[in-house]
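#lab-general

N.A. 3:47 PM
ok so I finally got the sequence cleaned up, no stray characters, all 417 residues accounted for. can someone with queue access submit it? mine expired

B.Y. 3:52 PM
send it over

N.A. 3:53 PM
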Amino acid sequence: MRLHLLALNPTDSVTDGFLPAAARLGLDVTLLTDRPEAHRRAYEEAGGAAAGPLPALDVVGCDVRDFREVIGRISRCGPRARPDAVFTNSDHLQTQAALAAGYFGLPGKDWKAALRTKNKAELRRALAGAGAGTVRSVELGPGEDVDAFTARARTDPPGGLPFPCVVKPREGVASEDVVLAADGDELAARCREIRARRPGAALVAEEYLEGPLHTLETLGDGHVLHTLGAFRTHLSPPPHFVEERLELLPAPPQPHSDRVLDQLRALGVGFGACHTEYVAQGDRARLVEVNYRAIGDQCDLLLADVLDIPLFAHILRTHLGERLPADLGARADGRARVEYVCAGRGGTLEKAPPASDSERDGVRLVYRPLRRTGEAHPLYRTNRDYLGVLRATGTDQGRIDRAVEEFLAARRWEIVS
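B.Y. 4:20 PM
back already:
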């Protein structure tokens, strides 16, 4: 059987998660990407040593952002490479993969649900139209004048956009160009700054949701929708929103998880993996965004470990048309924490610890560098500022927290201007 996997840049989710899972399932893989050389290097560097054997892999260059090119390129692969599944874990390619899967008569996500979750303005309209929750927001269309937009924000939505508000790219990811604006003048200034980096980009401005930020991780096959777990997310101080730490909650919090599931159903979400972020306000769960793919930045690798289930294989099986078991057999006693080491300024990374795996006092620590020494970068104020990620798992949260603090205190990351 053959899996056609769509990807942009190489990610740990693909290299350490989905490719080894494909090998365990006995799948051959055609990887369609606009960055073939980067994926070939990542495949060679992985070598199968840490994550297990990798599958037979055919890397094919393709403009994967265009669903027409994806369908045409898969067709040109010929009958020997006929797909049994079309899949992606990229935020940017869910609609394209869904359309391609539908074209070839294969299981996949509803392309309409993939589009409405990716497009943050459409997400708000869909939820409001279904009576499933409202967040006041206003959309700045491609090429629309910023001054006209900010004037409209004072009256549309009804009552005007409340301040402070959050402005972000309509189809953005990873907190890229997500910023808090205190008033109308600052909103206009932030929009112009983002437009300078993204000419003509569509933006949304929406009310700032105060309260604890949580995630809900789900997995479905179109018939059953499993709740895998939930994280509490700790962010950098405003005006930017960089994820610095995530802690796995002992159980998905109620009634919030049921509220989130209701909203996901209203959006048509229920096939494959989904990572949803929401703010808890009393018994309300107010969605921040819905990422119709598995959680990233190595949290998916951690989730598979702490739940002790073949998470990546389960996700691929749904796209092969298999039903999920009624009970995934996940462990319920696991605890976990993910800590991101973030650059505090731009410059060259001069000193940093190497990758390591250790276990002590019932806590397993996995540290992976995310930036090589000698690399120079500006300060992005996104997850591109991550220097490394520490994954800690065990059954005692106190021990996990102590192990993380001791690990970080014993190591140094040095950046020079």
